[in-house]
Amino acid sequence: MNTSPAVIALGTRIEATVAAAIRRALPGTEPIDPLVRRGERTDFQANAALALARSAGRPPRELAAAITAEITPDGPIETAEVSGPAFVNLTLADAELWRQTALRLDAGLGLPAPYAGTVTVVDYSAPNVAKRMHVGHLRSTVIGDTLVKLLESLGGTVIRQNHIGDWGTQFGMLIQYLDEHPGTAWHGTADIAVLDGLYRSAAAHFAADAAFADRARSRVVALQAGDEATLAVWRDLVAVSLAAFNKIYRRLDVSLSDVDLDGESVYNPHLDDVVAELTDAGIAVESQGALCVFDERFTGPEGNPIPLILRKSDGGYGYATTDMATLRHRVRELKATRMLYLTDARQALHFAQVFAAGRRAGWIDASHEVVHVPFGTVLGADGRPFKTRSGDTVALTGLLDAAVAGARAVVAAKNPDLDGAALDRIAASTGIGAVKYADLSTARTTDYRFDIERMVSLNGDTGVYLQYAHARLASILRKAGEGETIVDEKAPVNTSERALVLRLDEYAAVLAEAAALNEPHRIATYLFGLAKVFSSFFDRSPVLKAETAALRGNRLALVRLTRLTLHHGLSLLGIDAPERM
Ligand code: ARG
């Protein structure tokens, strides 16, 4: 949580000035977005005149001039001029740019807290017990964890919920199989690959042997009835899986821990009640022996309604029932005002149906925001679906190992003097960072290729590149030595400094946008752009060998603020920012 006072961005202040000028130039118009953007040949450009001219019935350029005339240069704005067909070009005073830099540095970025007072449940990661985590869970885990940290950094309260798949008919099959194959070596193993094998053997049996399938179904009944011997095996299966999940969470350095667990089994005792409430409200109805919710908005290819099945004809509850329960619990007990559910895009219909039923039940209303946050698929390096040769999902652990090995080679080649321990440490941090960055820098709903060579490249839009950029900033600051940074507001601002100040000042707006759209890639894109802008600043504007002491101080302030911003952004993405590499 940030505690320092927020620093208002220059763009925000200019927007307010232009909006006021529009109101004076066109009294009586509805408030509109003044369309203030960063300009190419000018600091900012306001583009609203074009859109307003039509409704005002005035020539665009004349209207732009009228708006410009209402902008009295003061505060950050030094000049306002009409340009092109109807743009207003705005230039900022040099002193304001330095002042803003000093303010942000003093305030430790000075991020605003637009999410103060909101309580957001983020439902993410959610792997399934007795199966290994796959790349889909990787996406849910890293995107979810970034959204959590992002909302917290903007003042929000977040409740993490890891809805692991720890209940359901598959446990009947697994437990029955173990019962009938007492020699199966799984007990006490911390290796989820063994459980994965167990899952496959049990599933094969279930498919091939009808009598076994019947016994497995009775096991489900025993599990649900609370049979102690059955529950004991179930608990072991969950514990072994959890140990494996936690190992991956620690390796990925995500903020999930056991207190965030909110597995399907937790809801089991409440399902009768959830279903009864929906039935009493007339929302759940009988259909061919099953209990369903119908909604005319959800229809199949032939216009047939697609039901949300709350109770199957055999009396069993399923995934949909449990999710109705998560929704009710999160609103009523957790008092969530916002709920985000992260899964791949294939579950879109499930969540649309669950949310629609929750609205009909009155559990969620206009004061709640409930969103399925879908993401695209991870493909193999060849662009084909990511599967092993035998058609299985690819295990996450092996991919992380491969990424760390790839990063190790790249780092060792760049820095042959690193000793073994330092190389190990940096390889782990860059390898994991590379995987997370590749995922988080891709637009959320886009599929991407898991291409390790590209992920660990030093000269691309990669985590490694940003980590090196950060280490370089840290090294400049080490060379500069300790001491206060004194910003001289009277110094002129050159072009490369200007670009950097303005870019740094956009950070808060980028975070707000990333949070509003649940799009972490906006942070990644920003950081990559920032690193580039810094690079050209550093090429053109000597820092440690600046011409004057005042310039050196001002440029060091920019280096500090850039390091702080990059460090903060990388931490939101859950990527380590080493001081040395
Ligand atoms: N375990 C599910 C899966 O692997 C994801 C659960 C997501 N959360 C939820 N509340 N449905 O697909």
What does this structure look like?
- This protein is α/β, with parallel strands linked by helices and 581 residues long.
- Among the domains are: 10-92, Gyrase A, domain 2 (2-Layer Sandwich), CATH 3.30.1360.70; 119-379, HUPs (Rossmann fold), CATH 3.40.50.
- Helices cover 52% and strands 10% of the residues.
- The chain is built from 20 helices and 13 strands.
- It has helices spanning 10-25, 48-56, 60-69, 94-106, 135-153, 170-180, 192-208, 210-224, 228-252, 271-280, 319-332, 348-360, 396-414, 420-440, 452-455, 463-480, 495-505, 507-517, 521-540, 549-572; strands at residues 36-38, 44-46, 77-83, 87-92, 119-123, 157-161, 284-287, 290-293, 308-311, 338-344, 369-375, 378-379, 448-449.
- It has a four-stranded antiparallel sheet. A four-stranded parallel sheet has the order 6-5-10-11, sandwiched between helices.
- Helix 16 packs antiparallel against helix 20 (549-572).
- The longest helix has 25 residues, at 228-252.
- The radius of gyration is 28 Å and the shape is globular.
- 41% of the residues are buried.
- The mean pLDDT is 93.
- The structure holds arginine (ARG).
- Arginine (ARG) is lined by residues 123, 126, 128, 163, 165, 323, 326, 341, 343.
